[in-house]
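Provenance and format

Records in this collection were gathered into a single text stream. Each protein contributes a sequence line and a token line. The two records reproduced below are adjacent in the stream.
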Amino acid sequence: MSLENRPFVEKYRPRLLDDVVNQEGIVKRLKQFIRDKSMPHLIFAGPAGTGKTTSALAMVRELYGRKMAINRTYLELNASDARGIDVIRTYIKDFAKARPSIDIPFKILILDEADNMTSPAQQALRRTMEKYTRNCRMILICNYSNKIIPPIQSRCVVFRFAYLNNTDIKKRINYVAKQEEIALTPGGLNALVEVSRGDCRRAINYLQSCGTISKQIDNDLVFRVAGEVPPERIKDILKTALNSQLQLSIKLLNDLTGDYGLSGQNIIKNIHREIYDLNISEDLKIELAKLLAEFEYRLSQGGTEEIQLQALLANIAMLQEVE
């Protein structure tokens, strides 16, 4: 696949550690490993889209440069595919035990989504890490470090990646949009940040999806592509229900489902995100959260969406009357 035809996420992936944003403390420590030409086994843990895989690949590029393409200096595997014990005992073991060429200190194995590995596979990997550490260092990438068995965690240095802040995501989105000659309105940019929730990869993927529809991207287009609802429309439904205007709130809800085609559970999740920003008492917020949990459970058990959502609005209207 040519560079031009690649997804935006791959096409504009940072190639150096200096380009990784919002992880300054981690980048500083990784650069020290590169200067020393020595490193322990590593675990990169944290939410999706925060730069874990990018940091590992950038580290390999800075450490090996052009030598990456020769002598099999590094190997990248996705553990969600290669998760069985046989893969550990054969493919990974063969790579780890082979000596590196004399001009590189050690090889690197990047094991992405390592928290999807089975427990027996992790036990086998533990022994491989211990036995062939002179030849090969491993970087395990995962979303949840608690799913990595303690013996492996004790053999690694754990780096915890945080969600990206909105300013860094906006800078990256603006850069990609400028390179692709896509016009972003201020509302469209804010909407991309809103739907990404700290995940830069998700924001760039939504940008590419919107760019296939129009070169002029506004907030309405972003929310439609992302399958989400503008917060203002959710707040309008909540406010009308809290003011005991049941018929109006049901009409607003029907208009919303007709415009965006959302499922009942998606609507409840959108409502849940907005209740804590409403100018209402804490007690009422608690009651709303309990109601949402109850009706989300009903929908998960097969309840009719239209009936359950209207019943939810009716219960919200009654809450306000009690207040």
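Adjacent record:
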Amino acid sequence: MPREVVLVGGGHAHVQVMTAFAESRAAGRPWPDARLTLVSPDARTPYSGMLPGHVAGLYDRDEMHIDLDRLAAATGTRFVQAAATGLDRAGRQVRTAGSTAVPYDLVSFDVGITPDLSGIAGADSLAVAVKPIGGFLDKLSDLRSAAARDGGPVRLLIVGGGPAGVELAFALRARLRADRVAIGADPDAVSLVLATSGPLLKSLNAGLRRRTRAALAERGIVVREGVRIAAVSADGAVTEAGERLPADRVVISTKARAPAFLADFGLPTGPDGSLLTRFTLQSLTDPAVFAVGDCATVANNPNQKAGVFAVRQGPVLADNLARALAGKPLRPFRAQTDWLVLMTTGDGNAIGGRGSRLAVSGRWVWRWKDHIDRAFMARFMG
């Protein structure tokens, strides 16, 4: 009987495991006595690097999604389309929302994060959360339709001052202005405020922050720093200091945590509910359980939640699963201490930087980012 390797979730790392599994077999080095299974509720998975470009209208929805069903067929992976609901570690089974229990010898979780709006009154029902991406995309059409419905002024409040929030502000501005032009309405009637509880882009270098501030100001996007949102209402938001920020829509790109069902595994978790792992990407207490992406945290090297880490973890995870099957020592994953950040402004330009000094901007930076993202997606779209 083959040993069962189960991937729960179709995240950025797991799609790379699927292609590595097929490439090893094609090269005459198949994983020892292994069958690979993907468990995911969705047949398509979004690539977060292309989300701002899609919001801005630079990519269509198909271009930013990987077809998991087709990828599974192409890589010899069994696909179980179901939501995972639990883990029976004693019986070595992944529980699903259907009647199927999927047995495993090794299991890996790459299930992303979910909104955590519990600290903002009214946000669950009145705000639009960016994560998970699928839910946000479903609401994007409604947001665009509402903004263009009567041609009147449109006020958006974006909550979150990290790269994701900044890119989203640029992208929404570009898309809503284009929508307004299409119906003959005034594009300048679209106004955006970007609110952050701390400094804007606090983890990035000074040159990159300066370029971003200049680009935001040039496009009329107002930045409010040191503002913590306490409540969301139908006509805007209220800060902890009691200030009212008027808005027709509030979009939140912060406040997320790992899915709640991970806490039931009896494994160590972090403050955000993520599974704590060793450098080998294995659970601290169960070597048969691996976890990567936003739903996991390397215990001795915690990093920000960013898609770049899941992408970098993919090859290490694939190698370690094969090594575990062969009884070989596993490789450590060492996260970059500085990484490339590329942010589209939604209008054919982008801002980029890395480490403590590199900061660039311009149309060529957008072409660079577009090339990187398309090259990544091309690996899974054949």
